[in-house]
């Protein structure tokens, strides 16, 4: 099966360098200190943040700063086949890399011995949930009022049918040649998440990385707009 048509369009009609539609809503959960909901193509992801609060387990406390604990979970109904409930190797890995990506931007040093707990629930999954999860979590941390150097935005690029493409869809993720999820902090120029599955040449890697970073800048604007929208409404006394 061919993933890219002769007209250069992809299975869902996108151009090679085009993102799926992204929508971010801030402050969707009242019990959490911060929250965000992201719809990204067919992905639906919710992020909730609690803290900073004193780390319950004293052995896990860090006297130099807060510990960011991430729990990424795919709901049992998030894909066609039922996902087995509970942690898996994959969810443990994704929680770890998202936590490390957030730790780079959160001013952890302001909260010694504290924990910041981040929950990411994938309600519907269709490729790119770690990027959608990190993007949502970053906004939820900001919504919690936790000081950060900048928001981290995330997006994947990759290769399918010999072409470098942005933001892989489900078919491209399954049948493509490479997937390169990236987490990028526009304010500092840091890459805080970088993984690669599959094969690309050095040149292909460079152009995929450049494409993903450009998309992260675009997503960063969407994150900022969502936060501004939330607080502009509140200042005006509307909403809740
Ligand atoms: P990401 O969601 O970050 O792209 P993967 O590359 O591991 O992470 O997964 C790609 C896609 O495969 C997911 O978005 C989801 O649609 C699907 N998937 C992942 N795990 C499962 C699972 N246990 N059962 C069914 N589909 C899954």
Provide a short characterization of the protein structure.
With 240 residues, the protein is α+β, with helices and mostly antiparallel strands. It has helices at 89-103, 129-143, 170-175, 202-235, and strands at 22-26, 34-40, 43-54, 67-74, 114-124, 153-160, 163-166, 178-185, 190-194, 197-198. The protein has a single domain (22-239), classed as Ribosomal Protein S5, domain 2 (2-Layer Sandwich).
CATH fold-level assignment: Ribosomal Protein S5, domain 2
Mean pLDDT level: 95
Q: Please give the alpha-carbon distance between the first and last residues.
A: 48 Å
- CATH class, named Alpha Beta
The H/E string reads: EEEEHEHEEHEEEH
Number of strand elements: 10
Biggest sheet, strands in spatial order? 1-2-3-5-4
Cα-atom Rg, whole angstroms? Answer: 18 Å
Helix content: 25-40%
Low-confidence stretches: none
Query: What is the number of independent domains?
Result: 1
Largest sheet: 5 strands, mixed
Question: Percent of residues in beta strands?
Answer: 25-35%
Total helix count? 4
Q: What sort of overall outline do the alpha carbons produce when their principal axes are compared?
A: globular
> CATH architecture, please?
2-Layer Sandwich
Oligomeric state of shown chains: single chain
Structural class: alpha+beta
In this entry the ligands are: adenosine-5'-diphosphate
């Amino acid at each position: 099966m061919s993933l890219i048509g002769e007209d250069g369009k992809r299975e869902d009609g996108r151009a090679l360098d085009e993102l799926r539609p992204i929508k971010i809503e801030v402050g969707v959960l009242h019990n959490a200190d911060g929250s965000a909901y992201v719809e990204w193509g067919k992905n639906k992801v919710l992020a909730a943040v609690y803290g900073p609060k004193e780390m319950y387990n004293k052995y896990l406390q860090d006297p130099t700063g807060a510990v960011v604990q991430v729990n990424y979970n795919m709901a049992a109904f998030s894909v066609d086949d039922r996902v087995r409930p509970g942690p898996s190797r994959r969810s443990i890995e994704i929680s770890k890399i998202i936590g490390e990506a957030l730790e780079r931007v959160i001013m952890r040093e302001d909260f010694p011995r504290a924990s910041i707990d981040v929950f990411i629930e994938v309600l519907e999954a269709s490729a790119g949930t770690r990027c959608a999860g990190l993007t949502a979590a970053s906004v939820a941390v900001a919504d919690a009022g936790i000081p950060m150097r900048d928001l981290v935005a995330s997006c994947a690029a990759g290769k399918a049918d010999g072409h470098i493409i942005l933001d892989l869809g489900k078919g491209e993720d399954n049948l493509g040649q490479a997937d390169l999820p990236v987490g990028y902090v526009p304010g500092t120029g840091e890459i805080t998440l970088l993984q690669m599955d599959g094969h690309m040449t050095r040149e292909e890697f460079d152009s995929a990385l450049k494409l993903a970073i450009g998309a992260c800048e675009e997503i960063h604007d969407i994150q900022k707009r969502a936060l501004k929208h939330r607080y502009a409404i509140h200042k005006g006394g509307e909403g809740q």
